[in-house]
Specification:
This protein is an alpha/beta fold. The protein has 2 domains: 131 residues, NADH:ubiquinone oxidoreductase Nqo5 subunit (Beta Polymerase, domain 2), CATH 3.30.460; 31 residues, no CATH class. It has 4 helices and 8 strands, in the order E-H-E-E-H-E-E-E-E-H-E-H. The strands form 2 sheets. It has a 6-stranded mixed beta sheet with strand order 1-2-3-6-5-4. Strands 7-8 form a two-stranded parallel ribbon. Strand 4 and strand 5 form a beta hairpin. The longest helix is centred in the first third of the chain and has 12 residues.
Length: 170
């Protein structure tokens, strides 16, 4: 039988719901993995609370998902971990194209390169980031390869011609 979503009830969820009310859109568990869906306007405050009050001192990952047909096409996902309770939580929030997401570098230094990667691959900007610039692709690269509207065979043909001196093989 495949796993299904189930409500996630815990002291952490109760405390967050008490503090943020309707801003906590969903608290659930799927295949043993706990996650929160939060309103984008309070995502930073939720992350700060998880860090300061619940012991989630490790940011293990930060990524994005692109849903180009949705009103809020970017879902940012933070995965935080508490060594004290041996618990991992995913925090998800949705944002409009062009909206700035609050940086998490003020809580976790590890967010620095992860946010740069999301910027480089998706074009999502992080407000307050200390050095937001491309990390994987050249500065002159056009487009964001992990957006679903970036065609599989698309590449910056001008950059390839100028820097590699070849025509695209695609």
């Amino acid at each position: 039988m495949p796993p299904t979503n189930a409500p996630w009830e815990s002291a952490v969820v109760e405390r967050l719901r008490s503090a943020f009310g309707a801003g906590i859109l969903q608290a659930a568990t799927y295949a043993g993995q706990n996650y929160l869906v939060v309103d984008g306007s309070i995502c930073h405050e939720v992350l700060v609370s998880l860090h300061a009050e619940s012991g989630f001192h490790t940011l293990t990952d930060l990524t994005a998902v692109h849903y180009p047909k949705d009103e809020l096409p970017f879902e940012i996902v933070w995965i935080v971990f508490s060594m004290t309770s041996n618990e991992r939580v995913r925090v998800k929030a949705r944002f409009a194209d062009g909206a700035e997401v609050p940086t998490a570098t003020d809580r976790w230094e590890a967010a620095n390169w992860m946010e740069r990667e999301v910027f480089d691959m998706f074009g999502v900007r992080f407000a307050g980031h200390p050095d937001l610039r491309r990390i994987l692709l050249p500065d002159e690269w056009t487009g964001y390869p992990l957006r679903k509207d970036y065609a599989v065979q698309q590449q910056d043909t001008v950059w390839v011609q100028k820097n590699l001196g070849i025509e695209s093989g695609q």
